[in-house]
Design a protein that fits this description.
By secondary structure, the chain is an alpha+beta fold. The protein has helices at 50-64, 88-92, 102-109, 114-119, 132-135, 146-154, 180-184, 231-237, and strands at residues 2-12, 17-27, 34-36, 72-76, 125-126, 158-164, 170-175, 186-192, 200-206, 214-220, 226-229, 245-249. A 7-stranded mixed beta sheet has the order 3-4-7-6-1-2-5, with helices on one face.
Length: 255
């Protein structure tokens, strides 16, 4: 479930008054979508493209196994919090309808959506009735989640005025075939090399679902039908000689 924000304009010609406001409608527009979850990278391992590798490796999994996932993909981005790490939208709106803490409601929602349909209000919520500080954070990501959101937006995800019902964080989505990594992924044949540098950066993954693995290399050549891999790379991927892999060049993508 999400809240869809719709803009409403009311006007009274007799009084020469015009009122613009947003309404929040409870919807389940993401039914049937593939959802990608939040990634947490230990500070010790951040940088050097590790976060990008983890994020994009999910798209390589989708590209390697298209029949196992929906035609569309979405992600819920963590909402904005104040200095005390409390969620203003939860405090002023959602908490009024649940006799539980934010953590309890968020955890329960991962396996049970029924309680949301049972307890959340069925009528639209006028945002003008909310405090200004709450209205200001509707669809605003947590500061620590903004880089992850920007990474997904660079892949073709879009924000379509849908927000999380608990913390009001933005939900973003894309057609699976329009996600850049999925769209640009190609099957290639590995060839043995002794060097792991000298080419373009690329993601390389095995195509087996049961033993899926994805690594980042610097040996790819644009417009080539094969890709040089060292013995160590092949071991990391869990593949043998002549076993096909899926690759996607990272040229031009940001860290």
């Amino acid at each position: 479930y999400s809240y869809r924000m719709s803009h409403l304009v009311n006007q009274s010609p007799d009084l020469d008054l015009r009122l613009e406001t947003d309404l929040l409608y409870l919807v389940n527009d993401y039914h049937g979508f593939t959802e990608i979850g939040t990634l947490f990278v230990d500070p010790e391992y951040r940088g050097a493209g590790v976060g990008r590798l983890l994020s994009f490796s999910r798209f390589m999994l989708f590209a390697a196994n298209p029949g196992r996932f929906g035609d569309k993909v979405m992600a819920e981005i963590r909402g904005w919090t104040d200095n005390e790490e409390s969620f203003p939208f939860w405090e002023h709106v959602a908490s009024k309808f649940f006799d539980m803490t934010f953590i309890e409601a968020d955890k329960r929602s991962t396996s049970d959506f029924r309680f949301i349909a049972d307890l959340m209000p069925k009528y639209p919520i006028y945002t003008e009735m909310l405090p200004q500080d709450v209205r200001d954070i509707l669809g605003k990501p947590h500061d620590k989640s903004r880089p992850a959101m920007d990474l997904l937006l660079s892949q073709g995800f879009r924000y379509n005025n849908l927000i999380d019902i608990f913390d009001a964080g933005p939900s973003i989505d894309a057609n699976m075939h329009e996600v850049q990594t999925i769209r640009d992924a190609h099957h290639r044949k590995p060839v043995t090399t002794t060097s792991n540098s000298g080419g373009e950066k690329a993601l390389v993954c095995s195509v087996s679902l049961g033993n899926f693995a994805c690594i980042q290399v610097e040996t790819a050549q644009e417009n080539s039908t094969d890709i040089p891999l060292t013995d160590e790379m092949m071991q990391e991927l869990g593949i043998i000689k002549d076993e096909e892999v899926l690759t996607c060049l990272l040229k031009g993508k940001q860290e």
